[in-house]
Write a structure and sequence with these properties.
The complex is a heterodimer.
Chain A lengths: L3 H19 L3 H7 L7 H13 L30 E3 L4 E3 L1 H11 L5 H4 L13 H11 L13 H14 L10 H5 L4 E3 L2 E3 L5 H8 L4 E3 L4 E3 L1 H11 L4 E2 L4 H13 L9 E3 L1
Parallel strand pairs in A: 5-8
Antiparallel strand pairs in A: 1-2, 3-4, 5-6
Chain B lengths: L4 H5 L4 H16 L4 H23 L4 H8 E2 L13 H5 L10 H13 L13 H9 L18 H4 L19 H5 L3 H12 L21 H12 L8
Classes of the chains: A mainly alpha, B mainly alpha.
Chain lengths: ~270, ~240
């Protein structure tokens, strides 16, 4: 990493009022200032190291973990997740799969594998964040192809579609409240229309992402969970069926988009 | 806890209807050759459930929701139990409710509106602007000791000097200036804030009064932001 991101932030703060008047999509310009620099690269490197390091009670690396394309195959795997895994008899996204491999291969307790998936503000990336950043990066340019062949994959998509429209809580929000129309924003933040190919594709292909405002890599599980928090719902359980269903729903609608994660987020 | 009671009451729920009808049939046919018939009925029930599951993709949002959320701070699991309005308005994007159903939701919302006890609709626009700017409230990450915000700018343009406004809802700039302060207009706007479903069955706007998001005084302050000639909204 170099100083460019920091300089870009300074330049942004100075020019913010001007930009805001001229262009609704100031965050796109903000991101453009980073150019090819994405601080997620550092986290990706940590993830690669972690993947190859012998860890856990059994002291083995994750390199035997099957992400869907065979044991240890990482390239292109993220673009095809979530998918059904016979050994787990469950549709799993990357994070669920990693937790599964940490338990089955490395011998961690199930609760240990999911104990702390997200880093706190100012803290280094968690194992999950680092692994997700690296593994997603190994699908750069690979078209999204979330499978819909196994009945449980179809069921996950259908469940995701229903949950997307599920209005509840004191604010009556569903995902669709904010994400079912094109060219809409909250304050100045553009809202992707996740029910249309264009919005679903660009959103799905750029998570995990480096969240500039939080100085951290955030994963797709985090993204969905934080939307749910703002819906005023109770906490979405990490790698739960509902979370995986929503990710499957978005992923299927994003078919064909070349992966571009880790993305750079506001 | 009994989750999503309302959805099971929905007579259009095919899973429930099919299996209960077959179970009924099973109990009627269990006469001479009871065991055999019942076993077959059970098979039929199983097959029917499977075929329905295949049609709808085995999606059961209620069961998945039960296992996928945990209560955190002020956000308890009861928040996931849908009211009849929430269940009716959870259809696919672009769906419209039958007119009769929409009418029922709207009249129920209208009937439950509470107008200000003292008959005064307008509070302080400066307090209203602060409420409109505040986006926190009722999230599990929010301190419930702090007053909830209205977050009006998230979706609406209000004061023209505030450029960071969203566009999920219509622009409200010049609201009072254009409409005046007739008793009807004040009541209509109060109702919109209290429970927008009174006029639009599946409105996207939170029920700020009905759901207890804003207090009566806060609603008055937001009303002043909209109507007061001195409010920046009307400049």
């Amino acid at each position: 990493m170099n100083w460019k991101p920091a300089l870009a932030v300074v330049a942004m703060v100075i020019s913010l009022p001007l930009l805001a008047q001229n262009d609704d999509n100031i965050f796109a310009q903000y991101r453009a200032m980073f150019g090819d620099d994405n601080p997620a690269e550092l986290v990706e490197m940590q993830g690669e190291e972690l993947w190859k390091t012998a860890r856990g009670p059994r002291h083995v690396a994750l390199t035997a973990c099957d992400l869907g394309l065979g044991a240890g195959v990482v390239a292109g795997a993220y673009a095809r997740l979530p998918r059904y895994f016979q050994d787990a008899d469950r549709v799993q996204d990357l994070e669920a799969r990693l937790a599964y491999c940490m338990v089955k291969l490395q011998g961690f307790k199930p609760e240990e594998a999911v104990a702390k998936p997200y880093s706190e503000q100012g803290q280094p990336a968690t194992d999950m964040e680092a692994l997700a950043a690296w593994i997603a990066g190994q699908s750069r340019g690979v078209p999204v192809a979330v499978p819909q062949t196994h009945p449980k994959e179809k069921a996950a998509f259908e469940l995701g579609r229903q949950l997307f429209n599920y209005r509840a809580g004191p604010y009556d929000f569903s995902c669709a409240t904010c994400h079912s129309q094109s060219d809409r924003r909250i304050r100045l933040q553009a809202l992707p229309n996740l029910t249309a190919a264009k919005g679903a594709r660009s959103a799905f292909a750029t998570w995990p992402g480096y969240r500039i405002s939080q100085g951290a890599v955030r994963t797709m599980q985090w993204r969905v969970g934080d939307c749910v928090r703002q819906q005023r719902f109770p906490q979405l359980v990490f790698t739960s069926d509902a979370a995986i269903a929503l990710i499957t729903y978005m992923g299927v609608l994003a078919a064909g988009e070349p992966m571009a994660a880790p993305g750079l987020k506001r | 806890m009994n989750f999503m009671k309302g959805t099971f009451k929905n007579p259009s729920c095919p899973q429930k209807r099919a299996s209960s009808a077959l179970l009924f049939l099973g109990s009627r046919l269990r006469g001479n050759d009871g065991k055999w018939v019942f076993r077959n009925i059970l098979k039929m029930v199983f097959a029917a459930t499977l075929s329905i599951a295949t049609v709808v993709g085995a999606a059961d949002p209620d069961a998945a929701i039960k296992s996928s959320f945990k209560a955190k701070n002020q956000a308890g699991l009861e928040r996931l139990e849908r009211s009849p309005m929430q269940a009716a308005c959870s259809g696919p994007v672009g769906m419209t409710l039958p007119q009769a159903e929409a009418g029922k939701i709207q009249s129920a919302a209208l009937a439950a509106v509470k107008f200000p006890a003292d008959g005064k609709f307008l509070g302080n626009w400066e307090a209203g602007e602060k409420i409109a700017q505040t986006g926190t409230g009722m999230q599990y990450s929010d301190d419930p000791a702090n007053p909830n915000g209205g977050n009006c700018y998230a979706c609406h343009q209000l004061a023209p000097k505030e450029i960071a406004y969203g566009n999920l809802g219509p622009s409200l700039t010049g609201y009072g200036k254009q409409r005046g302060q007739s008793a009807e207009m004040l009541k209509y706007t109060w109702t919109r804030l209290w429970n927008s479903h009174a006029y639009n069955a599946c409105s996207h706007m939170p029920r700020f009064g009905d759901a207890g998001i804003l207090t009566e005084q806060q609603l008055k302050d937001v009303m002043a932001l909209l109507f007061d000639p001195a409010s920046p909204v009307n400049q």
